[in-house]
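Let us practice reading a record.
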Amino acid sequence: MSAPSDRLTRALSLLDSLEPGAPERVQGNLEAFHPDTTELVLGYAFADVVGRDGIDLKTREMMTIAMLAAMGTAQGQLEFHMRAAMNTGVSREEIVEVVLQVSVYAGVPACMNAITAAKKAFEAAGKAWASLSFVDHVANARSPTHCHSAASSILYTLRVALMTGPLQGPTHRVIVANWLRKTKWPRPCHRGRHLGVVAGA
């Protein structure tokens, strides 16, 4: 096998920084499909695009999570990039916030799929998932009259949306209003939220 090009070397180095050991696994899978695939796919993705200056790697990974979650068709990639995001310094709480943002702009089904991916990513990364999972929080959320925070109110709204169908009309407006008002959970800054919305659109 010929020596990797400088482009591919840079791509593999960046991929390894996202998840140590990933280059060997991914490269093996791609080359088993076709020898040119590694250069074409990894070179383009990680050397030509992800490795560009202008946006730091942590922000890129949060944007990638938003895009993959909104797509709803790349669960394996979503789990990988959630793990990678944590390796770049993204906190568990920030990932939760990105997933919640997805519920507003891509719908609750996409959000629920992303929750499943997040739980797997947290477990794979050796990070303790809360004793009561986020899905359970949604299922057990109390009505707005009993909510003690905007975060609780958002969970209740998600529960209603799950029970009554897709987000629409008043339900959608309540989620947006509560999202903008909520203050208790650690969350990305407004700049980060808008980048997430653009990425997932």
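A brief commentary: The chain has two domains: 1-52, 53-200.
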